[in-house]
Amino acid sequence: MDKSFGSLFGPSRNNSISRSRQSLGGSLFSAGGPGRKGSILPSGPIGRKGSGRYSLSTRSNISTLQVVAKSEYNILECYGLPLPVQVSEILTFAERNAPVSINYSQNGWAWLVHGRRLLIWQYRESHSKAMAASAGIAGGDNFPTPRRALASQCRQLTLPHCDIGHKAALITVFIAEGHQMASCLAVSPAGDVRYWPSIAHDGSSIDECNILEGQEFEELVGLSSGNYLLVTTTCSLVQLQIQLQGGRQTIAARQIKPPSGFFGGIGKKFASIIIGMHSIPERENKLIRINSEKVSSHEWHITVLADKWIQRWAFSPSGSNERFLCEDAEIIRKIREFFLGKLWSTSRDPNEIELWTLDMQPTDRGVLILAAACNMQRTGPQVHYALLTFVYEGDGMVLKESVMMKYKGFYSREREGECTSFKLIANRAVAYVYNDKVIYPVILDRNSGSSANSESSSPSEDVEKIEFNVQDDGILAGNSFQNTALFFSKIHGLVVVTPSDFEPSSEVFNSSVSSDVFNPNISVNDSGFIAQSIFAPATTNAGNLVLYDLDPEEISSAEKDNVSQLKAAFIYYIKRNTPASNEIINELLQTLEQKSLDSELDQTVLTIAQDLAEDIPAADPRWEVTTKHALGSSTSMQIVQQLREKNIALTQFLEFLHGSSLWDKLTATTSGDTIRPTGHLLADIAEKIVAAIALKCLHNSHSRIIDEAIDLVLKESNRSPPSPNLTNQDLFYVQVNQIHEIFKVFGELVENYVKQELTTTQIQTALVEINTITVTVLQEVTKFRELKSDLFAVRDELRRYEYVPWTASSGRYGLKDVLLHMISNTLNYGIKGSGEPEFKIKHYQHMTDLVDFVLDGRKRLLESVQDEDKRAVLLQQFESQRSDLIFPLVDAEQYELAAKLAEKYLDFQILVVICDKTNNQARLDEYIERYKEYDFSQFAISWHMRQNKQGDIFHRFKGNQAELARFLSDHPSLAWIQLVFNGELAQAADVLLALAQNEKELLNRKRVMLSLSKLCALAAEGDFSAQITEINSEVRLLDLQEQIPVDILNIYGYDTKNAKVLSPEEIVDLYIADEYSKSSETEFRKALELLDFVEDPIEVRHKIWCAAILRDNWEDYNRSAPLDTMQGMMFFRLIDLCYILDGELENFLPPVESFLSAPELGDLVESKSFQYLIKLGYEHIYDSYKKK
């Protein structure tokens, strides 16, 4: 069962177990120290052996305990007095731009910071005896509290102005010696100090400004009453003392500096001294954590962990002197080496590891450091977490103990903050690793004296995870006082982790939260466990079967129907009376009608098998025996044993069919809308029994959800137990033939939970549990199918029928539609509905398994189809569905899972896509070799072509030159590249010229091809002058097209940015188009230049000149000086331009007679003015030409 809090399906615990809840009110918070027997909580979430659940309440002042959440081994309870109204309002309605921080001390005081508001209240009352022993937030041996009870009262103070923003970690509330009211000391991050001698008077305070300029303060720890230590974000230490001078209280600040000797100094390393300091200044130190511990009444030890070193200091309670104990600048290297040796021992480069030190806490075992590491090159984005215990030996720290957490995060730059947000509180035996939403209890207590390389450093497994699943709830702070873990919940205030009544064994305690979210007692993914529970003969007593006590003669004589006669033959067979068995069979065969479909023998065999699967227990008094000769009935009182024995009985019946040659006489039977071999229908019955066994083996560990599903199955089918003493479970596991119905209900349950608006975690948990059950059961069915394939093999002539097992068939009796529904639920409600990496890992794996079941069924059907046309249609459907089911895994970057399916079902497109997305050349080469018989290389190259990845083809397939050349032979657009690489420039020039001449789409592409062709021709050996001339001519044609005025192209709607290739005739038409009124003799002259490229230059030339004639008005001219008019006419201007450029009139000017009768000119040829002017013009032109 899910071990997280707030789960919909909580653990089923024996609530009848009664244990005493010992009150610790008189010991935990009294003056007794931790050394007193019975004064502290038992270490760890389960306590000492034999201990019960412990209460943290005192008898007089704690409100009724409210259980916030439960898990298998821990209870999360509200602790202390109710929150004041003002505090609750701030926690509920605080704006995001005004952050809220919380802190509390073991003296019973808590405080909240919201902007400049400081709210102080008591979360616990206590006796007044130890009032004077309070020492601020660091805490001493006890929990002193003031004499006056201030339950639910709240004091509000005003903090000094600060632009950075105040935080509760820089504030402490304490009882000064000789005072009854609490005092408060607050330091702003900028270094302004404010001290209130009494929290009852906000206006009465002492201020000290800017105690350390240019530094930002991070945390305040207490040494004794009036003596405190501040640390900045860059690890500078400042001591604060509240002193009484001249009857007035003052604040004295003093910076603490490490010694500057040979081994002193922050961040200095011995190697740096010998080799020399780095020329590049090192970045500033970054504080990870500061912590204090009282080692005696005369000394406190302060531990400071930075991102480059760890320091240890000793202070006296009075603060009059301090000693620098040691500094270890190699601590990060030691942590890095631990991860290398533990997880990536083959790695030679320690810089491969991304390392984070997250938190630190001194314990009586040593200094406990929480660290995380990720090696993207070795294990991908997995983040591993470890708890490392260091002790001081000599001049440095030595790793003594290590515990690897089973929980793993997933690293990305966007989620780095989430992966590194964990903090740590610990006692001697248990560490609580937590962030704002979850707590992971981790066992620290190992065999004493173990080293980092001993068995104690093997991966420890988290007990469970404690989740805050209520929306908007979360952890604002965490502290451990005297081995007690206290957390501050945003909704519930202070909560305490206490052990539950359930006491797991050591094996259960070490179970991992990441290995199974359901139940620590069983791993449902343990195939060995399931296989043994189903098939192991040691757990099954076949002697419980009633069939061994049946009298075959009585059966044969009592009933003369076919079923009874075959049962009698079967009983004779297992009693080794083969002659009697054969005699009955021979008589039976003579009376049975033999048909190729739905024969009586087939119907009889199926009836016996179906009845056997649903026979009721023989010895269970709650059942009324209705079948006298039940072959599958068992005298066992256990459901799982009854099912196993049904499996044995059916197997013996099948062996009887084979041994008596009846199996070879079985044909086919109509099943719904399909016809299936009877042997396959018998296999379905056997597999359903196996499914029932597997489901029952999982029932105890998933009782809540399986019981709910069983109830829904019986309700939907209007079935109920025949006796009030029987349960739904009894009936369900007897009616094995309907076992498929529960899988349909599993799919419906998830949608019901979504409609009920359960929390995301509850839905995710239920979905994972349902999928786990389904996958596990179907895996066992698949194993059984493969193991018993020979037992259910049919004759060759029956193989013409399609093979569709019940797990792959559609409709109400099959699982295909159900599995597709589950895949959809997993994708929509699981993968897309959850951001939790733990859930997503399981969802991806379950989706892979479910898709595998669906595709396996489709593949088996495809292989059994004999009709080629139907096979082709089914193959197309299979390929389409295969891609649709696997691609979501590719989109989610689950490449290994997707590749596993694609390799099994030969989805080459998926394989190529994975190689492309991961840029994995080795994998692509491996696939080319593995699937050589399927022509994988040609498919892969074609895919790159379709995806416009032509540039990758030559790089990725350079090692397969033969296959590449074969492909390129049909793709000249790429073949020239290979020819250039091979130095065959002449052939490349020919291919490029041919491509250019065939290019009809893009003008720029044609120009590039021509240019490349010319370059190849120029670089090739030999005479290619003719080819170069041809290329130049093609380029000239492109130039003429590019010179077409843009206005013309716009008029006709041509794309001017991505110009298409036009034919010479089309270019001519554009140059002389009537729609372009701005045309001049220049455009017509360019049209004439195209005559060398057209097929009928005479006709086109005539067309151009006629177009020029029609541009002019031939009726309106100066009759006194017609030559003057002709000089401005398009026709004659064009003649002048052509004469200037070309010289010879005969080369461009048609004879005048061609115009006088040209039909293109229409009625103009009848015009006297036109005839006069054109004849006059020709005469004048020829006269002028002769003169020149």
UniProtKB/TrEMBL annotation:
UniProt GO BP: poly(A)+ mRNA export from nucleus; protein import into nucleus; transcription-dependent tethering of RNA polymerase II gene DNA at nuclear periphery
Source organism, top-level taxon: Eukaryota
Principal localisation: nucleus
Residue segments, region Disordered: 1-21
Cell compartment(s), UniProt: Nucleus
SUPFAM superfamilies, sorted: Nucleoporin domain
One GO CC term, this protein: nuclear pore outer ring
GO MF annotation: an example: structural constituent of nuclear pore
Regions of compositional bias (Low complexity) in chain numbering: 12-21
Domain Nucleoporin Nup133/Nup155-like N-terminal: 72-495
Keyword Transcription regulation annotated: no
Keywords tagged on the record: Nucleus, Transport
Family according to the record: Belongs to the nucleoporin Nup133 family.
Cited PANTHER family: NUCLEAR PORE COMPLEX PROTEIN NUP133
The name this protein goes by in its record: Nucleoporin Nup133/Nup155-like N-terminal domain-containing protein
Record lineage: Eukaryota, Metazoa, Ecdysozoa, Arthropoda, Hexapoda
Gene designation: 5576401
